[in-house]
Amino acid sequence: MTTIARSRSVLAAATLLAAAAGAAEAAEPLRICAATKEAPYSSADGSGFENRIAVKLAEAMGREPQFVYADKFAIYIVRDYLETGECDVVLGVDSGDERLATSKPIYRTGYVMVSRQDENFDTADWEAIRDTRFSRFAIRFYSPAETILKYTGKWEDNAAYLYGLIDFKSNRNTYNQVDASRLVSEVAGGEADLAIAFAPDVARYVKSASVPMRMTMIDRPITRTDGKTIPLQYDQAIGVRKDDTALLAEIEAALPKIRADIDQILAEEGIPLLPPSS
Q1: Radius of gyration of the CA atoms of the chain, in A
Q2: Residues 53 and 191 in one domain
Q3: What domain range is 64 assigned to?
Q4: Which residues form the Solute-binding protein family 3/N-terminal domain (predicted)?
């Protein structure tokens, strides 16, 4: 073999090795942080709508989706899994979350009031509940809905009912929460007059409820007595660790490829959407 031929052979081999290395790198799985206790967002069987979006994202990135499940509520995912390196990507974070580097928004939605259609309640003003006959409200603890009840004078008479939804478990030094599906079933069954919730929490269950239900998007934020504002509409994004800029860039490049898939998944879920704020 001539020197030129040997050089060409070496160059070809090097090229093949480089291509193989690149393919191996691209084939690294996308480790997705997920919770088993966060239906309808995430479920161990992969039926959560964020699970489905994550699969589409991984495919668009040329990676295998690998779910790293935590048997915990989602509030612990960033601290206990993403920041410790157990997983690399978390879906459904608020755009601009200071703990993370976040993608451009993948959708925007907000808090809704959920009622039975036969109640003919369709106001978008959260303060309007102050003057209603409603006395039972299904909400999730620690949410803006709790503040709404306090600001409209509905909290005190509703507290015992709410704690009954978690079997009167103490919230001291532990995290207990009302299942999202329970918010809707309480209203559908007549045990509650109204539910106030983040739309993605309840959209699936409103859609499949045993009686016709209505979701009304709340149209303005809460202004606290100290002048600070509690927003009720949020851009939702994908988050990574702050120093994982390469992964974030890869995600940003993949998102336009799955825009139609995301829209379809959200439509199937029944989530009411708002125009992105940015």
Answers
A1: 23
A2: no
A3: 30-108+235-269
A4: 29-269
